[in-house]
Amino acid sequence: MIDLYTAATPNGHKVSIALEELALPYTVQTLSLSNGEQKQPWFLAINPNGRIPAIVDRAVDFTVFESGAILLYLAEKTGRLIPQDAKGRSRVVQWLMFQMGGVGPMMGQANVFFRYFPEKIQPAIDRYQGECKRLFRVLDGHLADHEYLAGDYSIADIANWAWVRTHRWSGVDIDELPHLERWRDQIRGRPAVQRGINTPPSPIDRDADDEQALRFAEEARQMVEMGQSMGPDSRAKTAPESL
């Protein structure tokens, strides 16, 4: 049995999707990021970085944090969602690192400046939205000649998809990227993916700009403002994470 510590964020959903795809038995403990539960001592003992997701594989008494590392651990544990040959494995890891080092951080910063930051700093918004769009073009160009990112469907697709699906929340459209749209819709149709993105369910539809989404953004903005007023250490504890 695997214990999953998570929240309804792209990084959290990466792991719940993988667990569903692999049909591994798991329990879920949803952390309240707005209440700083991820910074409590009991969770820091699991993940010293104080971020979700993290897992505990009770069968071998082993803890894994960082979403990319968790995906690799689960894939290698089961021998699925990653090729066994060196070249095939490397292709998957390359696109996984593309998400970990590029898509996730850039979309995360776009979210902060476009959705949450109390001041609209247009150069910062343009910078991060522009980099997101550049990364999306890289994906679109590769997917023009490939059904999936690295051969068969893999953890590389799961990692990138969990973020790309939220592109509207970052203020970036993909209307002129047909191959990326095809891939996004194809993966969205997988039953395990649907179960994964509802574990836990998001309080908002990240594809929408409805009243609920706007209220969520306002609550996150208040968290950022609270962090600013309380100093750097407190800001680290109150700013929205992995949203």
TrEMBL record:
Q: Quote the Pfam families the UniProt record gives.
A: GST_C, GST_N
Q: Which residues form the GST C-terminal domain?
A: 85-204
- Its Gene Ontology molecular function terms? peroxidase activity
What's this protein's family per the entry? Answer: Belongs to the GST superfamily.
Q: Does the keyword Oxidoreductase apply?
A: yes
Query: Gene of origin?
Result: yfcG
Q: Which UniProt keywords apply?
A: Oxidoreductase, Peroxidase
Q: Does the keyword Oxidoreductase apply?
A: yes
Q: Which SUPFAM superfamilies match?
A: GST C-terminal domain-like, Thioredoxin-like
Its source organism is: Candidatus Accumulibacter aalborgensis
Query: For bias kind Basic and acidic residues, which ranges apply?
Result: 234-243
Q: Show the Gene3D superfamilies listed in the entry.
A: 1.20.1050.10, Glutaredoxin
Protein EC: 1.11.1.-, 1.8.4.-
Name of the molecule in the record? Disulfide-bond oxidoreductase YfcG
Q: Which InterPro entries match?
A: Glutathione-S-Trfase_C-like, Glutathione-S-Trfase_C_sf, Glutathione_S-Trfase, Glutathione_S-Trfase_N, GST_C, Thioredoxin-like_sf
> Where do the record's region annotations for Disordered lie?
191-210, 220-243
Q: Which top-rank group of organisms is this from?
A: Bacteria
Residues covered by the GST N-terminal domain: 1-82
